[in-house]
Amino acid sequence: MLPHPDRDIDLAACDMRAAIAASGGGLRRPAMSPDAAAAEVAARFVGPPARPRQGDEPVLIYPQGAAPALCFGLYGGERRVRDWLPGLPGRIAPGPLAGFAGVAPRWAKTGLHAERPVDLTALPVPQVTPRDAGRYLTMGFVMAQAPDGSMAISAHRMLILGPDRLGIWMLPGRALRQLAQAAHDAGRSLPVTINIGVPPAVAIAAATSTATLPRALDKLAIAGALAGRPISLTRGSAAPFLTHAEIVLEAELTTDTVPEALPGAPLAGSMPEFLGYDGHGVPELHVLRLTRCLTRPDALFQTVIGPGREQSVILGLGGALSLGLALSPDWGLHDLRFAPAGGGMLLLYAALAGDGPRDLAALARAMAGVCPFLKTVVFVDDDIDISCDEDVLWALTTRAQLAQDCHALPGFRPLGMDPSQSPEWQAARGTSVFKSYVDATVPPPLRPAFRRALP
User: Looking at 282, 309, 336, which one is the last position of a domain?
Assistant: First the structure.
């Protein structure tokens, strides 16, 4: 049974079940197959950038008989997620985050899990579109321990290859890929755990940028700071896992690779990407071989369909937190928010405090150095509520002349997942790839004329 919502808001950051309970227990849907459930979510509930639907995505629970129930939409409301995280400031910027200090995880024995046979086909994993390469784990957080005892944790798309095999795509530069390469260079596999249904504080912290974090912080310490208490870890048979994860898969990340396609099928699509378009399969996925499966009683299987408000909130909060922790307070940032319209990564709203002169081009470049997927920054004044897209559009409409106030930033590599940065687009438009920023702020001497009529 799920915890009672009146008792568990304080635990919501550390346990997905408590977060669901604190949000009213979720909307219980009729039993249907995983594919039918994903189709209903896509048709009725998912928001931008997948579909032009306003409002939060609800927490949805689909019973699956003896298998774990399917859970969609948990992160589909930014305000809801923020309410679970007592350590997240109301404004995400270097100033409010000046006193942000990591909280180290604690080690605990687990009595929450029971061992089950290793069989990925027994999990209710949906296939979202018929163009997908297969069935994917989309909310599996892979954790590995480095030789110095630190932990790498990150989410990756993982294609089911068989009952005990997964293919994982790791972007170059990710900490997990570096650990795997070091292990493979030493002639061994890397022991990992795949954690499904993780504490919300961990999901947001895992979306931060390891390369730009202050040296005193790692992702689990950030998760503890967001939760206001330590995140609990348990030692598995080969690698640590999150004590409160719903499902834990112990595995070895091997040196074997496979194309991102089912056996005998050509390389084609992967799954819907975070910007709302079909993904593209890659020639090499690394192979994970599963060795053990642990589940909580009445476990929930958490998944996302790819694009949508849910994934945008996770990526957006993690990206804004990365910027707030990495940038200097001297930039005068008041608040930061990645908009769902950019999948939580490409479109950034940045509210500026005060009237001091700023080099917005240099600031935009510094932001792109922290968040490489960033494409467009909209700078606004601190009287604009960047949690409201319409308010930002109002600033764009009445406080900018886009012919002069939209500025190109050359010298960046294209992002393959954005079709407007493809070679075909450049050939059709005759343009090069740029990042850009828009100055939608009022010149300081003119501020009195731009006061809102209504207080």
Answer: 309
Contacts of 66 (CB under 8 A, 6+ apart): none
pLDDT digits (tens, 9 = 90+) for 295-341: 999 999 999 998 999 999 999 999 999 999 999 999 999 999 999 99
How far is 350 from 364, CA to CA, in rounded Å? 10
Pairing of strands 376-381, 435-440: parallel
Domain shared by 272 and 162, yes or no: yes
Q: Are residues 297 and 399 in the same domain?
A: no
* Span 74-113, pLDDT tens digits: 999 999 999 999 999 999 999 999 999 999 999 998 788 9
Q: Based on the domain organization, do 200 and 257 belong to the same domain? A: yes
Query: Which secondary structure element, helix H or strand E, spans residue 109, and what is its range?
Result: none
The secondary structure of 293-338 as a DSSP string is: EEE-TT-EEE---SSSHHHHHHHHHHHHHHHHHHS-GGG-EEEEEE
Query: 107: left (phi > 0), else alpha (psi -120 to 50), else beta?
Result: beta
30, 27, 24, 62: which is closest to 305 by C-alpha?
62
DSSP letter assigned to residue 128: -
How many Å apart are CA 206 and CA 173, to the nearest integer? 15
Say what the pTM is: 0.95
Q: 90 lies in which domain range?
A: 5-309
Based on the fold, state whether residues 294 and 247 are members of the same structural domain: yes
| Same-domain status, 252 and 115 | yes
Q: What is the pLDDT of residue 8?
A: 56
